[in-house]
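#structure-requests
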Amino acid sequence: MNYRRLFITVLRVAIGWHFLYEGLAKILEGNWTSSGYLLNTSGFFSGFYHAMASSPALLKVIDILNMYGLLFIGLALFIGVFIRYASIAGAALLTLYYFAYPPFGTSLMNITEGHLFIVDKIFVETMALLFLVFYKEKGFSFDALWELFRNKKQESISETDEKQPSTRREALKNLATLPVLGVLGWGAFRSHSKYDVDVTSGATIQVKQLALNELKGELPKGKIGKHEISRLIMGGNLIGGWAHARDLIYVPSLFKAYNTEKKVYETLMLAEKAGINTINIGFPSNPLIAKYKKITGSKIKVISQIAPNMEKNDYYEDINKAIDYGVDIVQIQGNWCDWLVRDKKIEVIGKMMDNIRGQGYTAGLAAHSVEALIACEEQGIIPDYYMKTMHHDQYWSAHPRENRFAFEVDGKEYLDHNRFHNNMFCLFPEKTVDFVKRATVPVMGFKVLAAGALEPKDGFKWAYENGADFICVGMFDFQIVDDVNIAMDILKDLKRERKWFG
């Protein structure tokens, strides 16, 4: 047996089936488009791919060429017809895929099989196709069958009679890929019939996500200190896994499983392209965001929440570490502001604020309980901006007003349905609005959706109308463009009493 020829056949057929299956999966999807793939590219050729997706007419042509190119290249490689030309076309198509998300530079985080560098599966498959282009042996194929019969016609009648059995065997060998195609095709058809959609190809995985070309304009910005900040800011809880999911105990794990390091990077890149230039993160997320900025060269502004180390009486440890991570703004974490005021240790807040400013950084002060900010105000502790939970209480899981108590957020979670159970973050909305109206520094509203209890159109509008200069919102990647559009629509027609700060 000619093992070399058999190996080449298996290699060619395997690559051919990969192309053929991907093409069929996209065609059978019915509404598949390469728009999202092209618009989210981030390599040094990203402008070229974005231009390809910018025209609906051009995009339609690209989609057709992509789907049917994969189909016909795959079919040609599988049965072995025009092998050299199919290999060249396949290598060219894979090269376009490779440079859309190259495994180096700013696209390194887009690699799906770990942190590969230069060499990924597309690179390897391209090299295999180029090998088929230049290697003389093409395996059992229709091309070889055609060559066999062409040579047969050139032979004399006597020689043909002697070689007929050998010729028939060779012909059958060159047709051997047809039953293999039938078996694989039948298996794929049964899978598609059983599950209705292809369950293994990324071509069929679609999430409701508005494309960047559906943005309605440019997201407005304001200023906090020396920093120009988008009016809509990325929240860090979805990335960190702090879900505030009431008694749904699986949700934090679900958030973390979805937001892998790669997905976090994709989400941040999409947010930046949509006009969000700032993220507010919990302190544990600093290494991840620092890595993202280093890999991509991102200019996203980072607000890091910090807390005192009360066991060591070291109030500045987190501040110094956050600065070492390269953050832009340092903010005392909301629950710690609440606790320090509640426990009559308000002087710690003043010392931390002085330390942040003494190192030349903008200092923010957050709180869930408005009483904490009022107490700081009375002691003359005024930050460069406030960050305050801002949402109304007209939603189902809000517990009765008469059962709400100051400083209960991040406290005991009661089994009594009429008491706090991680379900409210702005306990007294009217009191918060009164405080915000008289504030003389910018105010950043957070938990404006009550951790998912309110629709964005409702929560965004309420916070902006009641004095928030900025809102901080946790967003999954598929929500970003929609949320940016909602924020722009609200800001465009907004009427509010408090003047804009920042």
